[in-house]
Amino acid sequence: MSLVLINAIYIVAAALFVFGLKQLGSPATAVRGNLLSAVGMFLAIVVTLFSRGILEFQWIAAAAAVGAIIGAIAAQRIAMTSMPEMVALFNGSGGIASLLVGWAALYNVGNTLFTIITILLSILIGAVTFSGSIVAWGKLSEIMPSRAIVFAAQRIVNALILIALIYCGVMFAMEPTLNSPYFFAVIALSLLFGVMVVIPIGGADMPVVISLLNSYSGLAACAAGFAINNIILIVAGSLVGAAGMILTNIMCKAMNRSLANVLFSGFGAVKTATKVEGEVKPINAEDAYLILEAASTVSFVPGYGMAVAQAQHVVRELGELLEKNGTEVTYAIHPVAGRMPGHMNVLLAEANVPYDQLVEMEDINRRIENVDVAVVIGANDVVNPAAREDENSPIYGMPIINVDHARTVFILKRTMASGFSGVDNPLFFGENSRMLFGDAKESISKVIAEFKI
Amino acid sequence: MEAVFLAFVLMLSIFLGFELISKVPATLHTPLMSGANAISGITLVGALTSAGAGIDLWATWLGAVAVAFATIKVVGGYMVTNRMLAMFKKKDDKQGDQA
Predict the structure, then answer these.
(1) What is the pLDDT of residues A204-255, one digit of tens each?
(2) CA spacing 20 to 30 A to A73: which of A114, A220, A264, A406?
(3) Residues 72..111 of A with a Cβ closer than 8 Å to B: which?
(4) Alpha-carbon span B97 to B99, nearest angstrom
(5) CA-to-CA dists, residue B39 to A42, A87, A246, A415, B63, angstroms
(6) What do you get for the CA distance between the two ends of chain B, in Å?
(7) pTM, full prediction
């Protein structure tokens, strides 16, 4: 196949990626968008296989078969609550693939200095994406402690790694031999750097990290594209890189923090919030039922705790019962609730909650005064009024869902422990707050049982 | 000149990416992310060329492993996105509030 034809088909593939991404932006067209981009990918792969550059098929066939089987099984089997881990692993596999492509490109003859630099970049970004994603996966699946891991000289250590990386990179670029020790040092240091970048980031900041690594995996593909002089890699990689950056930015805004602050600060260690004291007012399922039964508008506010308790299905059931009872039901979702962007939306969609009932933070805050009951399920920091009122609070300035302005607030909570940031939550002591202690799933099931009597 | 040309493409694609994504509703953030994830599996195309070029045995090996990883990402990414999107349903004509 001629180079012109190959490139022409790459252009078609790129157009399909663009259309696909565009259509992923609306629930009505998203399925088709995903399909379009899959078709684009298929075209790009097929045309590459037919290009004259490819001589040996046996390794490709074996490797692709293994990858396809693993990917397909993972995609079928994964529980929606584990989506963040899955996305982290996919990011990581993109990273390692780009690293290896960069490495293999070293064997091409006649590499210019520019190509060597792009090879180094694809190895650097690929390795950081890979090891960073593995750490993120470890934190999400709680194989590692999910809190921020900070130690005294962290910044100095990171700076030293970075200096060593640049030094080895320069030394290698000056004399790019295949078995240069500097080359292997670059790989090792990049992998180490990826670990160092992600360990100081705590569990609640995971949405930022996941979308950032998503962006990196695109950039890694883009750098690999430069290394092997392939334009479709550059186009698709940078589209994804840009998309990931936008998401990262949305996540940062939703926490009122800069990206630098999320990446380097190791949340919560700096300030101590004003201690809140007061009396909490517990409530039992029976009374909760009576209040809900009389309410005309109810808004559920889910957080990571809902995912942990796997409570999304019972929440939907309660929502449906309330609707039958003539109550207006909405689900108010904070942009950083959960462990990845849109985590809660996916869980509720899985439980068959129609997406037009999912409302964003700004919308619900506009009419929160008219909400009779706000039911907080496993969310803490995203509904903490200290973010609005207490200047000493580490989360001060973060936009929150103002559930404390609702007429009544139910808070489903296991115990009185504070949220991830370790901040006390004055919401619990509010005049209109009622605590429904216990496992979220059990508590809601009890309320549902009351409805059915 | 080649490098300049590629950099030009890079710049335009990044701006296009920003434009495409900036107005996505929060509901779709996860599918968008995993869909984008699948697209960045485009590394597979690069991996195929490295694995199939037959320049060097070691390069072929590196390429083949890259093919495996990138295929996981492409196949898994598109399938899981599709699975997720299939769950997003609009409210069917139930009686009650917001139409």
Answers:
(1) 788 889 999 999 999 999 999 999 989 999 999 999 999 999 999 988 888 8
(2) A220
(3) 72, 74-76, 78, 80, 83, 86-87, 90-91, 93-94, 96-98, 100-101, 103-109
(4) 6
(5) 11, 13, 16, 43, 19
(6) 57
(7) 0.88
